[in-house]
Write a structure and sequence with these properties.
This protein has about 500 residues and is mostly beta strands. Among the domains are: about 5-115, no CATH class; about 130-240 and about 275-335, no CATH class. It is about 5% helix and about 20% strand. The chain contains four helices and 24 strands. The strands form nine sheets. The chain has a four-stranded mixed sheet. A three-stranded antiparallel sheet has the order 2-1-7, with no helix packed on it. It has a three-stranded antiparallel sheet with strand order 11-14-13, with no helix packed on it. The longest helix is centred in the first third of the chain and has 13 residues, at about 80-90. The termini are far apart. The relative contact order is 0.08. The model is unreliable at about 1-5, about 20-25, about 25-75, about 90-120, about 475-480 and about 500-505 (pLDDT under 50).
Length: about 500
């Protein structure tokens, strides 16, 4: 096996270097029986071409399965030898002289001149799926300088549709990357008229950025869309407010750890709900402290359509005009958010999918649609084939209760369900659960360490950069298993147990 030079651009693409060999066939590095002997580094000449921005990542070659032309060289190279050579070439770029001193141990220290001793590659793969889905705009940068707007890179959209994890694949298990076509950026909705002054797209393809100019005299929320051929492929929440990070509480339980198991010392809460433009519950603008609404697991906000004092507001943008369903109707406005049913039961009013990936992809492309499970109604003693869906059931005492078998995105309530031991159930994990949907318990020696350790922020987390939803999943099967891992500090109680399918007359 032989390998050669590649030149990497900052976006991760690469070209192979052109070159010519001093020995005939173009081999980069160590091979046997070339020009009468074993060839080493420096045997070839290279020409860099076709790139204006590059990073030299490594050089050299590996030989692992060549015919043993010379008795002194084994035909199969050890993995230890290969790893040593890889490490050496990645650690620095060497300029090699005419020597036979290389012995596989010395790192060529005496006769190898390091162009940049100790240097590491500056090619770093950035995981754009972890980029934020929302941005705070306070009108100032971190140094206090006035700003007129912000830029939103669209690369996250391309990352998610190309390799964003299991929920971004179609029902056949394949990614469907964003196609080429007519690209636009727009104002999907805003809850304060005139909040966004303009939206423009700068650049092309996945390297484009959305330029959002904001009216600094206003506060409120907006959602910005990125479309190809008029189809939404991603949206971002722009939150225009005073800085919500300054006066937040630093309360914590004290056991919290990061993903590496190190104690968290800079724990902090925001001073308000996401989307709120006031942190005050008394005084001026107290009614604007409510914020936005979120459907669990989704990245996009829903407008509340009303403030805490009972006053109502509407949103407008690409979605048209929408108001609270109890507000006075105005021509051109809809009465409420559009609601879609998961699955295929209701023509014209469904998502068309029962799978998590199908509905999550649908939610990304239709962020203003509230998605709910189908609901069957069963009167007492009535036989109903509910097709595995949720039911509204009447018991012998004529009391109605909700039996929940599903979620908004899946006909299967749990990722893994154990009918004989509910404590082993594994919930769906969309917002970065501490244990990936498994039960948490600080009193269980086998579970305590993972229960304390926060997972990575989810690609669907609705929080701005440097913030995350304090997500966890606890006590799904036992009244005796206290809810002691809650980030809100709550402990115990029967409401911690998943009893949604129980009959209230007997439970």
């Amino acid at each position: 096996m032989t390998t050669g030079f590649r030149v990497y651009r900052s976006n991760g693409t690469y070209i192979n270097l052109t070159g010519y060999s001093n020995y005939g066939a173009l081999y980069f590095g160590y091979t046997n029986n070339q020009g009468g002997g074993r060839r080493g580094p420096g045997s070839e000449n290279f020409i860099v071409s076709s790139t204006s921005e590059m990073t030299l990542y490594g050089m050299g070659a590996l030989r692992n399965d060549f015919v043993n032309f010379t008795p002194g060289y084994p035909s199969i190279r050890s993995m230890q030898d290969i790893e040593k050579e890889i490490s050496k070439f990645i650690r620095y770029t060497g300029i090699f002289g005419n020597t036979i001193a290389y012995d596989g141990i010395s790192e060529c220290a005496a006769v190898c001149f390091a162009a940049n001793p100790g240097a590491a590659s500056d090619y770093v793969v950035t995981d754009w799926s972890k980029a934020p889905n929302s941005y705070i705009f306070t009108g100032k940068d971190r140094n206090g300088k006035d700003l007129d707007g912000l830029y939103i890179p669209v690369k996250k959209a391309y990352e998610m549709w190309s390799r964003g994890g299991e929920f971004m694949k179609d029902d056949n298990g394949n990614y469907t990357p964003i196609p080429s076509g007519t690209v636009t950026a727009g104002l999907y909705w805003e809850d304060e008229p005139g909040l966004i002054k303009s939206i423009a797209l700068e650049g092309t393809g996945e390297n484009a950025k959305i330029k959002v100019l904001v009216n600094r005299l206003k506060e409120g929320n907006a959602v910005v869309s990125y479309r190809v051929n008029d189809q939404v492929y991603w949206t971002w929440h722009v939150w225009v407010t005073d800085d919500p990070t300054v006066n937040g509480s630093t309360y914590r339980l004290g056991f919290e750890k990061d993903k590496n198991g190190l104690s968290v010392t800079d724990w902090k809460w925001m001073d308000r709900n996401l989307g709120a433009t006031s942190a005050n519950f008394l005084g001026n603008d107290w009614h604007k402290s409510q914020g936005l609404h979120y459907q669990w697991g989704r990245k996009d906000p829903f407008p509340a359509f009303g403030h805490k004092d009972g006053t109502m507001y509407e949103i407008s943008g690409e979605i048209g005009n929408m108001r609270n369903q109890y507000a006075v109707y105005r021509t051109g406005s809809t009465s409420s958010l559009p609601v879609k049913y998961r699955g295929n039961l209701y023509p014209q009013d469904n998502t068309g999918y029962d799978t998590p990936s199908g509905n999550i992809r649908y939610s990304v492309q239709n962020p203003i649609h509230m998605i709910i499970p189908p609901l069957y109604v069963r009167k007492y003693n009535e036989t109903v084939n509910n097709n595995g869906e949720d039911m509204f059931v009447q018991n012998s005492a004529k009391i109605w209760y909700h039996q929940r078998y599903t979620t908004w995105f899946s006909k299967q309530k749990y990722r893994n369900e154990f009918s004989t031991d509910a404590s082993k159930n594994v919930a769906w994990d969309l917002w970065g659960d501490t244990r990936g949907g498994k039960i948490s318990d600080l009193n269980n020696a086998q579970l305590a360490e993972e229960s304390k350790r926060y997972a990575m922020k989810s690609p669907y987390d609705p929080c701005p950069c440097n913030w995350r939803v304090p997500s966890y999943y606890d006590n799904i099967g036992s009244h005796s298993n206290d809810n002691n891992a809650s980030p809100w500090g709550r402990i115990g109680g029967v409401n911690d147990v998943d009893t949604f399918t129980s009959d209230p007359a007997s439970s």
